[in-house]
Amino acid sequence: MRLENFDPGPFVTKPRAFRGWFLPAIFALAGFTVVAARGPTFEQEEQVRAINSHFYVGQAALAPDGRHVAFVLRGDQGFELQIHDTAQPGKKTEARLAAAFLTKVDFLAWTSPDQLVLSGNYIQVVDVRTGRGRKLVDAEAFWKSRPVGEVPPQLRVLGFAAGDPQGLLLEVSIEARDGSVSLELHRLDLATGAHERKFSRQFAHPGGSLILDQQGRVRVIFARDTVPQRFFHLAPGETAGEKDLDRVLPDHTAFAFSVTPDNFLGERTVPLGFAGDPQQLYFATNRGRDTFALQAVDLRTGQRTGILAEDSAADLVDFASPWLGTPLVVDRARQTLAGLRINGGSDTRWIDPEIAAVHTTLLRDFPNRTVQIVEWDAARTRFLVLVSSANDPGRYFVHDRNTGWNTEYYAKLPGFVPDHRNPVRTVVMTAPTGGPLRLFLTVPRDVSATPPPLVVWLHDGPWARGSFDFNRDAQALATLGFAVLEPNYAGAGGEGRARRELIRRSPDRIPVEEVLAAVKLPVFHGTFDPARVVVVGEGYGGYLALRALQLAPHQFRGAVTINAVTDLADVWRVSSSAPASLSLGMSVRYEGDPEAVDAAAAAAAEAAVQRSVAMPFRQTDFEQEFARWMISGGPPLADSAVAAQAASLTQPVLFMHDPFIRSAPFASLKKLRTELKKLRRERPYFELSNRITRAELMLRVGEFVREHTDAP
Amino acid sequence: MTIFAPSRGFRRVLRWLFVVALGWTAGARAADPAAPAGGDVVTLPPLIVEWKNAPLRWRYLELPGFELLTVCGDETAADFARRNRRLGELLHALVPGQFLFRSAVPEIHVLFNEETGRARSQEVIAEMVKAQGAKVESDGKVRLHQPDAPLELELPGILRGMPLRPRQPRQIFFLPNLRLGDPDSLAVFSIAPDNTSSLTFGYAEDRVRFLLEARTPALPEWYVAGVLGLFRRAEFGQNEVVLQPLIWRSAAESRALAYDRQRPRVLLPVADLLAGRRPAPGTTLTETDEIWAAQCALFVRWALAEEKGSRREALEKFVARLDCEAPTEALFQECFGLDFSDVRDRLSDYLPEAVDHRAKLPVPASPRAPKIVPRPATAAEIARIRGNWERREIAYVRAQHPYLVDNYIAQARATLHRAYDTGERDPGLLAEMALTELEAGDPEAARRLLEAAGVDGLVRPLALFELARLRYEAVPADQAVLTSEQAAAVQRPLRAALKLEPPLRGAYVLLAALATRSATAPDAAELALLAQGARLFPQESNYVLRAIYFNHTGGRTEVARELAELGGRWADDAATRQRFERVQKDLAALP
Q: Which residues in chain A touch residue B259, judged by CB atoms under 8 angstroms apart?
């Protein structure tokens, strides 16, 4: 059905037909030799599946008094809640969750020493004494009460207001048929299950955001649908309504909160949130500097602090939408700012010296690891800690400051055992354009006599980024025997303004030059075989992979694209009528269902896709303006279009694509393949869908790489 | 304390006998210069007496590194030698030979039988075997008890209070024995059953501890603790070494971990594991001490129990490198290919398996056994070996019961002179006599005997060192600088001693003293020896500082820097550490 009017060419592999262990004979057209493909070993396949399986630990939370720690675990029979006594860690109780189909858990918190609240498909409270869960509400409850749209509301748990542990704050986003969105703040009473709307605002497009103070009141609203995009302030105790944040402060030019096409990638200020004082706004700014640093301003007096935290080599916050995560870490007992989660990752810059000292101790205890202090008790004696690395999604510990002990509880991905981890190293080189180019190299753990082939992995973008956090894809490919090099190519977020803005100068050539320079870096000599390189890209990275083949065909044995953008006109589109493919940094990574364990879950995901197709995501005015700005400052789009230069695409390519994915229009890929067909260069195509797991995708990529690099 | 189990006597196969060698000495009273009050038990090592009308029939047996003098039957003697040899080989499944005490001097064994009535100091024998679970009956023969139930052991540390099941398989037991050491050698007195069809016994932990602790340079504490922890769980069969499931902190905790592999657990950071020290005997163990000890055993087990053997190799390489390097993460990574956090995770994941499963260790192939045939001992052999044992007893008795020491000196002298007086001048005999004279406080006599033996005739590092020391001490104290002849006279036996194993701390100290009082600066060979001494005994801060000084003034600044770093790492107190830091700073400033 999906492939209607589309000739997939001779190498079509239908989703369900693919099995990693199956060694297919590769049939060639006339004149081609039949080649038996060499496949991964059974063990390798199992490990790739283990790497891509669900995390065992869904959520973890430490009780405010530090006496208990709770974990939501994904067992064979679904989720289960385990509560451990931190003084006697072996003593645990298992709570029975409310009986309903639960497919995800994205929030867990203690509301009292005896009660937990948990949010996933629905919100429930669990009485620790009885070990029983009680369902309160789900998203449907908000939909039914306001039946204005086609799509179920989106719920996001924001946490608790200070001193109100029984009132869970929820952000509810209700999309109407015309694409407008009502963004609401609700207080859910955990005792009664009743919810009360505390705030509501209409937006013409999705993507608006609310920033609350610690008292649970909306203080800042982000409106994405205007040009420029604006932040509005609601002063505590005032009823005068919203004020443009840039107008609230006396010296507004020093801040530049408003987002214009000109400053989106450049110099501006991003509000982050509040700690105990609702007048003290914490923000990140790169005004007069290359990277975003942390500061605060008193909204009454305009008095700003000095730099509270900074890194001259990296942005401390995600420049696009940092408030969507929880960048500020606030001490829940003292209501003071403790730290800042760096760039949306697991690393934290601690402001509170006491917590910083604990972090230092933990770094000594766990060298070469990322140590994330998740929570701590009121007395600051016990700390819930997640210790992870680029090749390990991590393990949860409770650190006891009195004994110095780190009690290990659960591993996030126990099926991916340490012996199977592939080493990762970070290298920072000088990019051909100057400035630092950060590279992440993963090498197969099993050293062989000959250097392995290299997969250059180009992440989606342009302003996504690689990090030292756990990378399933790199681990999977390294498990299959390939070195994997992921460059934070020009345009990547988090690397500072100068690197980010490079993408406007050249959306393809500069990143490709960086890849070529990285592959030849002397420090990698002997680590991989530079003559056997395949480039793999996802989304925007897929576009770059194709351009790399066109610009430097002799440097690569081939390319794999995953939901690749094949025409930049799809990205920098200036049309309000066409579906948007890029929502300014909100790129879509193809995940599939990690395990495709459940047909119902797969069907539900499929239905969600269908609904999203039914309600096209239209570009906002701002996005059109931004695209116009991008195009005006760079080379003509035609110069960098893949299809227009199809003749130069001579190397093997495997196209992997979900025809329904919005960020990479399928039509453009069809056009490219048609051009290739005219040149008698049909290339294989593998259709993605929610039924294809990421593991299967990786095995397929590995098969291609193996085939074209003469790997065993 | 000693302990053991079943069987009805030495003539029967002994089962479940477990001896902590030398454990009985722990109960001995502190040295008391006064004679004991009537009725007090005097704990003395055994003295063997000859009855003129019924001389003992001594047999002799020699293997590489092993000498046996016994009154037991040939079959028992051969069994004993074979088992001892095999145990030495099997021990290498736990510890490679390079990490065990080694000596150029053969280990001497005196194997006695149940004819303990022939030994003087019956009460000593009685005390010894009683401490080890047996008793001496009125006829002087040893009888073993048949235990009814597993015994509660008085053991330090993590095993305390734990019901201990006999760990040795049936047919394996420990012999009541007493080990007395010299700085360069071991001698063991054992009581064995005679006429047994199969003599099978195992090493006691104490012996393994000695072999580890006496190794030079000193092994890392975590390694010693780990190997000993493993040894407690090891079964030594004829051709296999099997590790019983690990005990992690307690039997109950171990069972719980085996049942629930996800049970929370505390592991110490690997840096702390490698920096940890064994608590001094008698100190109350903290929970952290318990975890450390258990984790040491876990780490060594993890390395040894791997089938491919790569971890074993890595462990051996790492421990060997620690002889002269700090236990840094970089070194660890170089050896294991893992960083500290990696190995912590692996240990944590391995723990549930270790507490739940036995592990069979690869055992080195047994080389073809030499033919073992005891022969009648010569008078010189009897005198030398018995004299050796009796001489060692002197120091022990001096410490425990100084008022009895003269008897022991007389006995040792008598034994040795029995051969000497017949004209025997074997250098080994002369060396034993010299060492006896030193014990007796007659250095002049000792020097005469050693000079008579000659440097070339002496093959014991201790004897050579003593000769060098006596020659050095013969130089008048007010003579600041030794003549070249005096220096050469000291150097000759000293250098010969330094070529032999084990390295003697005193020999290196004497070398440094000699260099200080020599008219000429140490030559390259001497400087190398001084540096070698510092690497072997880095805990000897004053010596290391001297070695640094000589190497620096001798133009070997790089070596001096290395030694300064080494000395600083081993310094026990802050003041000494600061001293080394100053030296390091001064040396770093040099070109």
A: none
Q: How far apart are CA B185 and CA B462, in angstroms?
A: 9
| ipTM field | 0.86
Instruction: Give buried/exposed letters for A596-633 (b at 16+ CB in 10 A, else e).
Output: beeeebbeebeeebeeeeeeebbbbebbbbbbebbbee
Q: What is the pLDDT of residue A691?
A: 80
pTM exceeds 0.80 for this model: yes
Please report residues of A whose CB lies closer than 8 A to that of B345.
392, 395, 418
* CA-based nearest residue in chain B for residue A446: B337
List b or e across B253-289, with b for residues whose CB sees 16 or more CB atoms inside 10 angstroms.
bbebbbeeebbbbbbbbbbbbbebebbeeeeeeeebb
Confidence of residue B237 (pLDDT cuts 50, 70, 90): confident
**B208 Ramachandran zone, left/alpha/beta (phi>0; psi -120 to 50):** alpha
Predicted confidence (pLDDT) per residue in B182-226, tens digit? 999 999 988 776 555 566 678 888 899 999 999 999 999 999 999
Tell me which residue has tokens 């675990």: A73
Q: How many residues does chain A have?
A: 712
Tokens of B464: 């050579």
Q: Which residues does chain B have within 8 Å of residue A403's beta carbon, measured at their own beta carbons?
A: 287-288
Total beta-carbon pairs less than 8 A apart between chain A and chain B: 59
Query: Which residues of chain A have a CB within 8 Å of the CB of B263?
Result: 89-90
Beta-sheet pairing, A78-85 with A68-75: antiparallel
- Nearest partner of A579 among A626, A543, A612, judged by Cα: A612
Burial environment of residue B211 by CB neighbours within 10 A (0 to 12, 13 to 18, 19 or more) = buried
- What are the strands, taking DSSP E only, across A523-599? 533-538, 558-562
Q: Is A73 helix (H, G, I), strand (E, B) or coil?
A: strand
Q: What is chain A's percent helix, strand, coil content, to nearest 5?
A: 25, 30, 45
Chain-centroid distance of CA A183 in Å reads: 22
Higher pLDDT, A100 or A256: A256
Residues B342, A406: C-beta atoms closer than 8 Å: no
Whether A414 has a pLDDT exceeding 70, the answer reads yes
Contact A406 B269 (CB under 8 A): yes
Given pLDDT bands bounded at 50, 70 and 90, which one contains residue A38? Answer: low
Residue written as tokens 């955990």? Answer: A190
User: How does pLDDT run across A506-553, given as a tens digit for each residue?
Assistant: 889 999 999 999 999 999 999 999 999 999 999 999 999 999 999 999
pLDDT average, residue stretch B265-290: 92
The two most distant CA atoms of chain A are separated, in Å, by 80
Which amino acid is residue A140, in one-letter code? E
Is B288 close to A403, i.e. CB distance below 8 A?
yes
d(CA B298, CA B311): 13
| Cα separation of the two ends of chain A | 37
3-class secondary structure, B289: helix
Q: How far apart are CA A282 and CA A336, in angstroms?
A: 12
Structure tokens at B257: 């971990």
Asked if residues A224 and A203 have their Cβ atoms less than 8 Å apart, the reply is yes
Do residues A542 and A568 lie in contact, with contact meaning Cβ atoms separated by under 8 Å?
A: no
Question: Residue-wise over B507-533: b if at least 16 C-beta within 10 A, else e?
Answer: bbbbbbebbeebeeebeeebbebbbeb
DSSP letters spanning A429-494: EE-TTSSEEEEEEE--SS--SSPPPEEEEE-S-SS----SS--HHHHHHHHTT-EEEEE--TT-TT
Rounded Cα distance, A672 and A683, in Å? 10
Cβ neighbours of residue A46 closer than 8 Å, sequence gap 6 or more: none
Question: Tokens in use for B58?
Answer: 């001594």
Contact between residue A361 and residue A342 where contact means Cβ atoms under 8 Å apart: no
The answer to whether B498 and B508 have CB atoms below 8 angstroms apart is yes
